[in-house]
Design a protein that fits this description.
By secondary structure, the protein is mainly beta. The chain has a domain of about 60 residues. The protein is built from one helix and five strands; from the N terminus they run ββββαβ.
Protein backbone atom coordinates (compact mmCIF):
# COMPACT_ATOMS: atom_id res chain seq x y z
CA UNK A 1 0.00 0.00 0.00
CA UNK A 2 1.36 3.38 -0.98
CA UNK A 3 1.52 6.11 1.64
CA UNK A 4 0.82 9.57 0.33
CA UNK A 5 2.45 12.72 1.63
CA UNK A 6 -0.14 14.88 3.45
CA UNK A 7 -1.31 17.89 1.49
CA UNK A 8 -1.24 21.42 2.87
CA UNK A 9 -4.49 22.26 1.03
CA UNK A 10 -7.36 23.09 3.36
CA UNK A 11 -10.55 21.44 2.06
CA UNK A 12 -14.15 22.19 3.00
CA UNK A 13 -15.02 18.50 2.82
CA UNK A 14 -13.51 15.22 4.03
CA UNK A 15 -10.92 13.75 1.67
CA UNK A 16 -9.37 10.30 1.73
CA UNK A 17 -7.18 8.71 -0.93
CA UNK A 18 -7.45 4.96 -1.42
CA UNK A 19 -5.30 3.12 -3.93
CA UNK A 20 -6.63 -0.05 -5.59
CA UNK A 21 -4.25 -2.31 -7.44
CA UNK A 22 -5.38 -3.84 -10.77
CA UNK A 23 -7.96 -6.51 -10.02
CA UNK A 24 -8.86 -4.77 -6.77
CA UNK A 25 -12.40 -4.31 -5.50
CA UNK A 26 -13.87 -1.95 -2.92
CA UNK A 27 -17.16 -0.44 -1.82
CA UNK A 28 -16.99 3.30 -1.20
CA UNK A 29 -19.96 5.54 -0.37
CA UNK A 30 -22.29 2.79 -1.58
CA UNK A 31 -20.55 2.39 -4.93
CA UNK A 32 -19.03 -0.98 -5.88
CA UNK A 33 -15.69 -0.36 -7.58
CA UNK A 34 -13.56 -2.83 -9.52
CA UNK A 35 -10.33 -2.30 -11.46
CA UNK A 36 -8.55 -4.25 -14.16
CA UNK A 37 -5.12 -3.78 -15.70
CA UNK A 38 -4.93 -2.36 -19.23
CA UNK A 39 -1.98 -1.73 -21.58
CA UNK A 40 -0.10 1.56 -21.27
CA UNK A 41 3.53 2.39 -20.45
CA UNK A 42 2.77 4.80 -17.62
CA UNK A 43 5.33 3.86 -15.01
CA UNK A 44 2.63 2.40 -12.78
CA UNK A 45 -0.04 -0.21 -13.28
CA UNK A 46 -2.54 1.32 -15.75
CA UNK A 47 -6.11 0.45 -14.87
CA UNK A 48 -9.65 0.68 -16.14
CA UNK A 49 -12.43 1.04 -13.59
CA UNK A 50 -16.01 -0.16 -13.21
CA UNK A 51 -18.38 1.65 -10.83
CA UNK A 52 -21.80 0.21 -9.97
CA UNK A 53 -24.69 1.26 -7.76
CA UNK A 54 -28.39 0.47 -7.71
CA UNK A 55 -28.11 -1.71 -10.82
CA UNK A 56 -26.43 1.02 -12.90
CA UNK A 57 -22.86 0.61 -14.17
CA UNK A 58 -20.30 3.11 -15.49
CA UNK A 59 -17.00 1.82 -16.90
CA UNK A 60 -13.98 3.94 -17.82
CA UNK A 61 -10.58 3.41 -19.33
CA UNK A 62 -8.09 6.15 -20.06
CA UNK A 63 -4.92 5.58 -22.07
CA UNK A 64 -4.56 1.99 -23.29
CA UNK A 65 -3.84 -0.08 -26.35
CA UNK A 66 -6.62 -2.49 -27.32
CA UNK A 67 -6.92 -5.29 -24.78
CA UNK A 68 -9.54 -7.94 -24.00
CA UNK A 69 -9.66 -6.42 -20.49
CA UNK A 70 -11.85 -3.65 -21.96
CA UNK A 71 -14.50 -6.22 -22.86
CA UNK A 72 -14.46 -7.58 -19.32
CA UNK A 73 -14.60 -4.21 -17.54
CA UNK A 74 -17.34 -2.82 -19.82
CA UNK A 75 -19.56 -5.94 -20.12
CA UNK A 76 -23.16 -4.97 -19.41
CA UNK A 77 -22.27 -1.37 -18.52
CA UNK A 78 -24.87 1.34 -19.02
CA UNK A 79 -22.09 3.64 -20.21
CA UNK A 80 -18.47 2.93 -21.18
CA UNK A 81 -16.11 5.85 -21.78
CA UNK A 82 -12.65 5.30 -23.21
CA UNK A 83 -9.78 7.40 -24.51
CA UNK A 84 -9.12 7.34 -28.25
CA UNK A 85 -5.91 9.10 -29.29
CA UNK A 86 -6.39 9.61 -33.02
CA UNK A 87 -7.77 8.30 -36.28
CA UNK A 88 -4.27 7.29 -37.36
CA UNK A 89 -2.95 3.81 -36.48
CA UNK A 90 0.24 3.02 -34.64
CA UNK A 91 0.32 5.21 -31.53
CA UNK A 92 1.72 2.93 -28.79
CA UNK A 93 -0.33 2.76 -25.60
CA UNK A 94 -3.41 4.33 -27.19
CA UNK A 95 -6.40 3.22 -29.22
CA UNK A 96 -7.21 4.66 -32.59
Amino acid sequence: MRRWKPSTIVRRFPFELIELQPGGEATLAGFDIRTIEVLHASGGPPTAVRVARDGKVFAFSGDTSWTEALIEISAGADLFASECHSLEPGVPGHMN
